[in-house]
Amino acid sequence: MSSVTNNHKLIVDAHEDLAFNAQSHGRDLLKPAVDRRKLEKQDNERGGATTSFPDLVNGNIRVVFGTLWVNPCSSEFAEKPCYTNSKEAYLQAHNQLDYYKQLERQGVITIIKTRSQLEDIVSSKEPKIGVVVLMEGSDPVRAPKEAKEWFDDGLRIIGLAWGATKYSGGTKAPGPLTKEGHELLKEMDRAGFILDCSHFAEESFYEALDDFEGPTIVSHANSRIYCPTDRHLSDEMIKAVTGKDGGVIGTVLYNGFLDGNWKKGNPKSGVTLSQVVKNILHVCEVSGSKTHSGIGSDFDGGFGYESIPLELDTSADLYKIGDALKSQAKYTDKEASDVLGGNFLRVLRSALPD
Q1: CB 162 within 8 A of CB 137
Q2: Nearest to residue 47, comparing CAs of 265, 298, 320?
Q3: Is the distance from CB of 319 to CB of 55 less than 8 angstroms?
Q4: Is 0.85 topped by the overall pTM?
Q5: Boundaries of every domain in the chain
Q6: DSSP 208-227
Q7: What is the architecture, at CATH level 2, of domain 11-351?
Q8: Averaged in consecutive runs of 10 residues, what is the pLDDT profile of the chain (354 residues)?
């Protein structure tokens, strides 16, 4: 992969379930997504593959927030492996972290733990992929004081919620932070984590913003004006998170989240990059700045090629979002580059340890 070159703008993708797809679905992420579509047994629920490490290199996606996401057995999406308690969640998440470490030993990626590692990835003349490890749903943290152990092991971002967790209300599960949730945020502050506010229930969302003193992002969520469910952000929530230390929101590239009228099984052509531009513009208009929007594709996060905008085939095509912002919204080259990567890089540069 190191021999591949391209001329695209540097991109940060703030959400991809790489380890989960590799371990739970046996997807060989060292093979291009298009090639794997021919080889993998087609899964109507997950759809055709859209991402791989060669695709990331081809698209100049230098930094990916690679998740640790483990599936609660109570979930409507329950599939094995899944967890019924914190011990099982802990072991499954560590298996995913070990996957990233194995890729690092093979020279495929660098796990970004420090600012200097970030700058090495960003400034390299040779294509490199840096993975910032993000925990989506905090049940693998068995107790709040364990946060420091996870930080020392390379984790840099935690989102307390997915659905409901032992720490927080979440998507389709209204509710506040639990007592342990408040304690976990304190431990995250002490350790130096970034907080991901994706999937919070509205009550826990505002409580977390009040509690947490460190940097805050939303790795992958869209606007409720286009998809009016609790999975996404109201204008008030957009204002709150972007007003706190320059938080950045990653736009999810699932058609059903870009346009709530689109349903899985509808033609891929029903959503185009113009709808991506609308979502990005709305965040910028509500926040009052173009510095709070980014990309959190969530590629292969329960949907596939058939369910992403018409112009996109794999993650190598993410640069087209910048082109669309310039042609459709008259963004300058710098403004488009900031959405593609610069805005999330700003957060990482301020948050990562030296």
Answers
A1: yes
A2: 265
A3: no
A4: yes
A5: 11-351
A6: HHHH--S-EEBSS--BTTTS
A7: Alpha-Beta Barrel (3.20)
A8: 61 98 94 92 76 98 98 83 96 98 98 98 96 98 98 98 97 97 98 98 98 98 98 98 92 98 96 98 97 98 96 98 98 98 98 95
